[in-house]
Amino acid sequence: MLKSASGRMVQAVNPLTYIPDPKDRQKAMDKAKHVGGNMQDRMEVLMSKIRAGETVVIDVAVIKATMQNPKPPKDKHVAVLKMACAAVSPRMQVQYTVHKLSSRLEDKPGWLVALKTLIVFHRLMREVDPSFQDEIVRYQERTGAHRLLRLDSFADHTSKDTWDMSAWIRVYSVYLDDRLAAYKSIRFDPESHLAQNPAAFCKLDACSAGDLLDKLPVVQKLLGRIMMCVPEGAAAGSEVSLYAAALVRLAHHLRFLFASEVHYTTLGV
Predict the structure, then answer these.
(1) How far apart are the first and last CA of the chain?
(2) Cα separation of 134 and 44, whole Å?
(3) Helix (H, G, I), strand (E, B) or coil at 3
(4) At 10, phi and psi to the nearest 5?
(5) Handedness of CA 161, 166, 169, 175 (dihedral sign)
């Protein structure tokens, strides 16, 4: 027994025989990885401010919104990107924002950076003018990255928990990719249009029964993706993954309403 600085008696540990708990060791490794990633991100922020170019505000907002801390992207950083991608913003500025976000996915990131980048893409798709999705499609066609949001082979091998997070990222990314594909094919996003104009569903009345039947399978596929977006394992206890799942669930009733409207219009009800 040894006496601590506070006067309490504590059990001495022999460093030659002490075997650390694997879980404690893994937590320490994860923490060290996050700390190292945070330091790297902070250095990138500093370098962006030093360069002080025209895009410094976007550069800083992208990095800070996707930093390696286990919290969802902050609203203030997402707000900066929303302003940069508004319908009235120069298209070159919107394209640059898409490029900076995509670069965060292309650098073989850990699960935190990958998931938070997908969340930022998701929020911009939901909360910005639909023209933002047009810019993502143009970026894909220009760069050949036709599955920019689809991380169906993503894997973070750090630990068992990161495997669970990787599985969630794969499911979530496939939903976002299919959502974008649906916008590209039918040029309609129920969630975005409803948020900006509640009467947007009336446009379905102008479609023929054949057009509506063509659109119905696309929406039904998205509804299926939504039902699959359920975090499991360690992902079910992560604040960031639950935040992403909540964003997906916000679209559930809107897409169900859209599918119902298609049925009613087709049947002439």
Answers:
(1) 82
(2) 29
(3) strand
(4) -125, 155
(5) negative
Structure tokens at 177: 């990719």
Residues 107 and 246: their CA atoms lie apart, in Å, by 27
The contacts of residue 195 (CB under 8 Å, 6+ apart) are 126, 127
Q: What is the pLDDT of residues 133-186, one digit of tens each?
A: 999 999 999 998 888 999 999 999 888 899 999 999 999 999 999 999 988 888
Boundaries of every domain in the chain = 52-188+195-267
Helix (H, G, I), strand (E, B) or coil at 20: coil
pLDDT tens sequence across 90-135: 999 999 999 999 999 987 789 999 999 999 999 999 998 888 999 9
Could you give the CA distance from residue 78 to residue 69 in angstroms, rounded to a whole number? 16
Q: Can you give the length of the chain in residues? A: 269
Distant-in-sequence, close-in-space partners of 164: CB < 8 Å, separation ≥ 6: 232, 233, 234, 235
pTM over 0.70: yes
Q: For 174-239, give the DSSP string.
A: HHHHHHHHHHHHH---HHHHHHH-GGGGGGGGGS-HHHHHHHHHHHHHHHHHHHH----GGGGG-H
- Of 1.25.40.90, 3.40.50.150, 3.40.50.720, 3.40.50.1580, the CATH number of 52-188+195-267 is 1.25.40.90
Phi first, then psi: give them for residue 189, nearest 5 degrees. Answer: -125, 105
